[in-house]
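Cont'd.
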Amino acid sequence: MADTFKDTVAIIQFPGVNCEYETAAAVRSVGLDADLFRWNENPELLEECMAVILPGGFSYQDRIRAGVVAAKDRIMDKVSELARKGRPVLGICNGAQVLVESGLIPGIHWERVDLALAPNVMMDREGYYCNWVFLRNEDSRCIWTTVFGTGEIIPIPVAHAEGRFVTEDMDILEEMKQNGQIALRYCSSRGEVDDLFPLNPNGSLENMAGVCNPEGNVLAMMPHPERASWLRQVPEDLPGSWGRKRWRAAGDVSKMEMEGPGRRFFAAVLSREGVK
Amino acid sequence: MPPSPIIACVGVVKDYSMCRSIQWKEEGDIIYLVGEPRDELGGSEYYRTILGTLGAHVPSADFIRERRQISSIIEMHRLGWIRACHDISQGGLLTALAEMALGGDGRGKLGVTLDVDELASCKLPPEKVLFSETGGFIVELPASKDRDVLALCTRNRVRLFKLGSLVPRSRLEVISGGTRLAIWELDELRSLFMTGCRKIFGIEERGEE
């Protein structure tokens, strides 16, 4: 088994997730293998995978609270163990909710739930919100964002109803900041961080869009990088350089099939020393 | 909403990279109407919502005219001229212009001033020009294609009206005889466009938790 999984990223398929195939396609687009790993498979098999991704969707129908049932699944014990050993773990959207509910994020107190992803707070609307937003890559410990420059602006879609990072414990927030755990913040197309809707699409504290653990190997992010992994997925009218690039690619399939702004999240594990 | 038959039409796109959205793209581009508004407001959105009547003259189905218009649009597109395109349907010319200004996600920023006098040859009062639901298309083309598009439409025997050029001011303005008939800020239209369903279905706004 050992060799077969070496270049493989495991994408955990809980009942009810729905982004696993797109995520696998994005992982394959950077030259890695992707393995759809069912929640009830032998968790020990995860040991040989170079990284673990928890994809988006509605694991267990979002029963009780988004992500909370999956967080109690047996397989998460193994994910937690691997995370502790430094294995890269990425949670996207519902996957981020699972990481928060399992206490892997913020991970200051191991497996203690210190953060929540609360219902969106938006202007003139409520519930589910789906749109393109902009992220600013912050100076952080996160290994999943090392491929982006500090301050780099990344356009990306969000699609969720519960994506507002909150905590009751302001000491935790302070500690997260000091540890460099705020990896991604919502911003304008020019990189200005403002907490007004829709720049901040859910009212997240500190405009947090992605939070990593103190070691930096685990990242919980609400936006969907797999939906921004090809240039053709970018709206042609999106403000900023990616929208202009997409507009110029119109009429040329080979350009449209080139990489999009989110693909580099998946390439990050490739450049990480010691993973392979 | 009165019960109505819905007919869906699906086409296969050979080259998806050639797809164009309805949203206006470039400052300085020219907006044209392909086709001609007629006194066909029966069952229109304007009669229903403004006058509260159904009217009688529903848009006629003129297959030759439709074919000529559609062929012209396809020809312009194959030549790579079209930057944005939208059809005239519910709500007529003015609604179509507003939809193009906003774009599908309401992100549009470019504005236009529509001079109704450009359509004087239709011999219709301004409200009929603006709200007639006779079929047609609005296209955005680069200013450099101005002569070519007129030649193409003349050859294909379709009417072409130059409606105005795109400006960076985010507003939609209608003028006639040098005076302003109406003006909307795109922000105002955007808010109506993005929250319309919520108002129709009576969904309450929710404040901070």
